[in-house]
């Protein structure tokens, strides 16, 4: 595994003629994965809104007026019922998200129950709860957690402009605790917040130069939220630039599952098809992400059918 990417190397790779980039990405992809198979994950916000962090893109931050109502932590039975429905719809992984800066130890009791119960119905589990201490990571591992999602979000340079309440290093520390506890890492970020291409590549470099590559790399296209600071600066990236970024991620992290995450609702079928060709091999299914929309199940099923893609990577 390579973890010494420089900016110059990533930029050179990203900038080769499109056909050459896609060919290289497809070759790497085929060497490591079945190119006609993607992973389907499903998301549930188990604790919504009222978050003390100031992430300028997020509908759930208490710092902004976004119209999202804060709710308490869901009970375990409701979470499992939702997971069962997601499994019926074809999801193999169930991701539970909480709008916390970091979990309280007593909240973790219920989260651990959720993890064991969702595993009990035969799904992979992922949670995203904010920053963790080493002992909290161990508790999650003991509950049988498969993946922990914690994103670097963007490049180090752009990060300081969009989040002030915790540093990129805080996040990297949590990723270390997750790894040390033996949990697989899901770590990616967001594009479409008005950043230039250099920052998107800067984000991939942080990810690819972690001590081990994240097993899952979610690439989110910023899902529009009214009332947050990013609304003022957001710009939807050129679709070709999105495909180039996915291809670059595939080549830089050959064995990672790259997820086309938030923002698919803005993408045409053709753009998604190109992203799959460039090496994306995971999606979120279901009409809702956490607080924002995802493509309708029928549209996704129709797209995958036309592409001859099956969805059982896990
Ligand atoms: N509170 C936890 C945390 O931030 O670690 C977990 C939940 S948070 C919603 C998980 C990730 O979703 C963020 O790190 C960010 O990358 C992504 N995200 C949040 N809002 C988004 C939006 N409007 N569009 C795209 N991605 C978003
Ligand atoms: C990730 O990278 N994307 C998911 C998951 N991790 C938790 C979250 C997307 C959130 C989109 C905004 C919303 O629905 O509120
Ligand atoms: Fe809170 Fe996570 Fe949203 Fe940041 S991204 S405001 S930590 S819920």
Labels describing this entry:
314 residues, alpha/beta, TIM Barrel, nine-stranded parallel beta sheet, 9 strands, globular, binds S-adenosylmethionine, binds 6-(5-methyl-2-OXO-imidazolidin-4-yl)-hexanoic acid, binds iron/sulfur cluster
H/I helix tally: 12
Helix content range of the residues, please? Answer: 40-55%
The fourth-level CATH homologous superfamily is Aldolase class I
CATH class: Alpha Beta
pLDDT averaged over residues: 97
**What characterizes the major β-sheet?**
9 strands, parallel
As a percent range, the share of strand residues is: 5-15%
Describe this structure in words.
- With 314 residues, the chain is of the alpha/beta class.
- The chain is built from twelve helices and nine strands.
- Helix 3 runs parallel beside helix 4.
- It binds S-adenosylmethionine, 6-(5-methyl-2-OXO-imidazolidin-4-yl)-hexanoic acid (DTB) and iron/sulfur cluster (SF4).
- 6-(5-methyl-2-OXO-imidazolidin-4-yl)-hexanoic acid (DTB) binds next to strand 2 and strand 7.
Summarize the structure.
By secondary structure, this protein is α/β, with parallel strands linked by helices. The chain has a single domain, classed as TIM Barrel (Alpha-Beta Barrel), CATH 3.20.20. The protein has twelve helices and nine strands.
List the SSEs and their pairings.
Blueprint: H1 7-15, H2 18-32, E1 39-47, H3 76-88, E2 93-98, H4 105-120, E3 124-128, H5 134-142, E4 147-149, H6 156-162, H7 168-180, E5 184-186, E6 189-191, H8 197-208, E7 216-221, H9 230-233, H10 239-252, E8 257-260, H11 269-277, E9 280-284, H12 297-307
Parallel strand pairs: 1-2, 1-9, 2-3, 3-4, 4-5, 6-7, 7-8, 8-9
Helix pairs in contact: 1-8, 1-10, 2-10, 3-4, 4-5, 5-7, 8-10, 10-11
This protein binds S-adenosylmethionine (SAM), 6-(5-methyl-2-OXO-imidazolidin-4-yl)-hexanoic acid and iron/sulfur cluster (SF4).
Iron/sulfur cluster binds near residues 51, 53, 58 and 99.
